[in-house]
Amino acid sequence: MELHAFHLMPYPKIDPDIREKYKSAWVVYPNSEYDPELGHQLYNEYLDQLVFADTIGFDAIVVNEHHQNAYGLMPSPNIMAAALISRTEQAKIAILGNGIALRDNPLRVAEEVAMLDVMSNGRIISGFVRGIGAEYHSMSLDPTRSKARFFEAHDLILKAWTEPGPFEWDGEHFHFRYVNVWPRPIQKPHPPIMVPSQGSAETLRWGAEHRYPLVCTFVPMDRLKQFYDAYRQYASEDYGYEAGPEQFGFTSIIYVHPDGEEAAWRELQPHIDYFRERCFTLPLPTFFPPGYTARESYKTRVEIARELAASGGPTLTAGEALVGSPEQVGERLERNMAECGAGILMAQFQVGDMPHDKVMRSMELFASDVMPYLNRDKASV
Amino acid sequence: MPEISTVELPSQSTRVQTGGSGPPLLFLHSEANTSKWGEFHDLLAADFSVTAPVHPGFGGEDTPDWLEDISDLVFHYVDLIEALGLDQPLVVGSSLGGWIAADLAIHRSDLISGAVLAGPLGLRPANPIPDIFIMELGDAVGHLSNTLDQTQVNPMTGDAELATQMWVELATQARVMWERGYDPRLTRRAHHAHCPMLVLAGDRDRLLPPDHAPRFAEVFGATFETVPDSGHLVNIDAPGALADAVRRFHASLEV
Predict the structure, then answer these.
(1) Predicted TM-score (pTM) above 0.80
(2) Average pLDDT, chain A
(3) B135-171 exposure pattern, b = at least 16 Cβ within 10 A, e = fewer
(4) What is the chain B residue with the closest CA to A287?
């Protein structure tokens, strides 16, 4: 099992009346609500938490890209990766990802990730994402072209990393007379690639084709198993291999408390509520703008939105909640991984407006009383 | 009731609704699930031979890959006029259809006798206008029309099929106007439209400000009329008034 420390870097002072006053924590939530002085403190604390994950032996630390929102304050994940390289020793730095379909110039991603890979001596995992629907509002990019741009940007970046330049790229969406990226990545043939997905069939098939590990965020266990099964099926039936657990990961909120489940939930619940009710204030047309997915996927999203409306918010853990005593968290973690056959756990310790000291206490307990007992040698559990 | 047929065009096969008799009239429809033959078409069919195609990517179709910008739709309709042998049709367009009609007049006014544009899109607005792409579907309907049902297209509580159809129609429209909701070249090309034109706008338009359609008319040297008690989609909110205006405009062409 691989343990990755996942962070969203949320803004912890979102207006309590955001739903009524602004309707969204994305795209239109005014940036006058952002306090840069607080932001300075937050970046330091959040980075400290990820650096701590490196010192306690996490296999990777994870940053990601979102724009014009209070849910996650990393519009440029590469800047965060750069900051982490000089402060960490062992952990891989997973950028989940660069929103390559969002760039007018995907070669900028090829350049920056190659720089990071060389600077870190090969510690970069390069995630590629389309970006959620909200990013297409934020960047005035036509969401109907998002998938095609994503696939072409991926092909361009891979070729720029693996084939000698200069060469010309004359695609449907991108045109470059000279592709000749300096520096080249240090990992051969290129930094490992991961694909976060919300489960669209096209992306699952594409991930299986390229053998890219599939990572799902905030997906409940039954859907997670559906996505993994679809990926495994594409792998074996269409691409002739058996996808192993090292190809599957998911995020899970973790909160460890010495006094057990009840005490853990009492401390965690307000931050979960904050996350659901404020950070995740995301109207359906912002999340899924016209044409962002195929017709059938939109219908599925509407079903999910109906379920979420009925259940009060997104699922924050797949399977049993990793909230409780060290023993409870450790046992459930291994059971969850086994149930869906995943080999990568993306642990999210900081949730919503959870303050730094609380995050650190939970992480310290996880390091001392959970991690030593996890079977981390086996790829599978 | 209209006859429904399919025409093979170089771009794609296209569904066409036809009805009525009289001089040829090509109607280019508006957005929000309004492609189907309705009251406005019936009123026109009393005096005209009406041809009402369904835009590619509307009325239940998926967004076509070949559609990149407004000019693709313009040349799609050039092909349609030629394929059907429409002889100097009067072109009537509402909202998105009005934009296509205006651009058709710019590129091929030799093919048409005149153009009636109701609440046409396409001109750069003086100030930012509401963004129908970020709205709940029902709210977008409310910005387009003061008579259409807003609850039907609510994906959470309404008719999932109709909601999905409108969502896909908006996706098709996004191809044309997501990144820029207008064509900055329209103003400097307007003088190429060598045919009589009439521009109309509802006096309760919630999408475009009151000075927008008059400015559109001025740019094209067209006549301008206001339609009372109508929102942005005049063909939906005031079909009788719009049909009257079309008849009067057509009569003026024959003088």
Answers:
(1) yes
(2) 95
(3) bbbbbbbbbbbbebebebbbbeebebebbbbbbbbbb
(4) B134
